[in-house]
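Sanity check

After download, print the first record. It should look like this:
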Amino acid sequence: MLQGSVLGALWKRSLALVVLLLFVGCSTASTKETAGDVKGIKVYGSSFEEYLASKTGTTGTFRFVVYGDSRGNGKGDGIEAEVNVPVMTKINGYIVALNPTPLFVIHLGDLTLRGGAEMYDLGKKAMKQLNDANIPYAMAVGNHELYSPILGAIRGVSLDMQKEYQRSFCASNTVGPICFPEDPRLPGYKNLAFAFEFGNSFFAILDTYYLTEGAGYVGDISPEQLQWFREKVTKTVKKHKFVFAHKPIYSSGSHDEPPTKSMLELMNVLNDNHVDIYFAGHEHYYVRRKIEKVHDKKWPNGVTYIVDGGGGAPLHRPDPAYGLSACAARYSFTVMDVTPNEIRGVTYGFSSLTEDIKPIDKFCLLGDGKPCPGSETQDKIVDKCS
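Expected structure tokens:
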């Protein structure tokens, strides 16, 4: 009896995997012809710089969008168990209708429930609305992209999955995100860590889960990557600075993972170089807080810290006891408008597919941790989260 039930479960799992592979094959075939140019300029590989160069007329004022954590809940055998396509479709539909159009979108990781070329193709298909609207998007790798699929289960992070992610996630013959060229000063991080400048702004995408031979689950920033980032952000002369990674430095509930020594050093680099905003995902909610002091640590320049992990993964509830200025257990995404002197952000959220998308937070920064005139109350600590 037990043997029969086990065989039945394995047969069901195998059948679901076959259906999933057939879906991916059809999806990849149907999207290959649409991939490629963005108004005549490819957004893959090093040509992302060419794309940015073509937008020089918008360098004074431009828009970008941020959100993360769109993986499925792992329940059942359907596609939504791997990637939450309905929520992503609603978010991306709103993004492509924005006026003015965003210059690019940055996804904060955990696009898929687990790793593997088939799963990455599912995630890319779910992001196809952006490609069709000629809006390139970049990825910060999450921990779930590195999980090994074994009989459909999650078996921990894998160096093989990291290599597969680097090899296949932004392949130019499929719809997919921007490829990051390898920086000679940071070998081994192709498509995992990247820095670029546009207009008056500096951007860096970091990998907080980099794996090496024999390494298990890390959840940290490596010394060589930290040094690379320190050099990049120290040398830039841009007024505004934005940094993106999957893992928060400080938790505001849910995972409640204390910062490692290296992540605290990353916080020091952010503070010392007047980084305006550190964006993270990993925790499935929206949180904004201005970090100047935590326990016995002080960062006098006041780094604005945003966790926007409401892209479709099972929602968590933030804890206002951590000292939050805005928080919500909702699906969400943040629209950033950058001008020569100001950074304005509006975060939009919704609780269900039938609910309208509405603003849930607004903020304005001058740089150096300073709020815009008239926005001083934005850093007031709230008593509860919506």
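If your output differs, re-run the checksum step. Summary of this record's structure: The chain has eight helices and 18 strands.
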